[in-house]
Amino acid sequence: MKHSTELKVGIIMTVSIVIFLWLYNYMKGLNLLKHNNSYYVVYNKINGLNESNPVYINGYKIGLVDDIKFAPDESGHLVVKFTIEQPFRIPKGSVAQIYSADLMGTQAIRVLLGKSGEYLHVGDTLPGTVEGSLQDQVSAQVLPIKVKAEKLMASFDSVLAVIQVTFNENFRNNFNKSFEDIRLAVKHLKNTSYTVDTLLTNKNGQFGTTMTNMEQISFLLKNNLVKLDYILDNVSEITDSLTRSEIKSTINNMNETLAGTSALMTRINNGEGSLGKLTTNDSLYQAIVHLTHRLDTLINNITENPKKYIRVKVF
Fold it and tell me: Fewer CB in a 10 Å sphere around the end CB: N or C, the chain?
């Protein structure tokens, strides 16, 4: 009876241990009741990968990380054992990559399948890689922006330096003087405006009288529009009459006379005719000058000695 009780206790303890181990592995995601295939991967670093982290193939969870330990060669490398629950064969050339599965930085393994027609055996070792963490990826994306920002800040510093040099004390003084000149100009304009307003106020009576006279003139023009139209019609008739008169004939005669005169002047210039010869022949001019000189001499002699040339007889 005593042995029967001890046997029962032993069986119960064994079953409890088995159940505990099964529950422990089940809570880790490993079902001992299913057929599991295990593979190994050697990494230089694992970026916080832990046991029970998931294993994915093409985005589908196919297994879990079962064990992590250092390599026995004391190189510092880490040997990761992962288990696949599905009856899936991994082709040779596949790579087990550690990556961040979510924004919280939870690490997982994804198997990048190779193109080979041959397959790994259970317990074989896959080559492993580590994808940059989210922080590394963000840093890689931010780094170019950082470099551009630094260049922009350098350019901004240069611009500030140029502005500082440009807006020196002399420039600021000139700038202030310009604003003072503008203020004075505005003040003068204000005074001028006030003067004009005062002038218009004082001359309001005269201005009103002028406007009244203008209105009267406009009224007179308006009332005499008929007479003005009549006068303009008469002027138009006179102009038409002059146009229809013999003015055109007279102008034609004048043109003919001018043409004849022009021809006569041309003949004179060419030395044709008596007048042309007179104007162009120098000998005739000299003869006339000589004759004039002799006549002048004769007249002087007659004036001085009239008795010599004029005799008067008295009967």
Answer: C
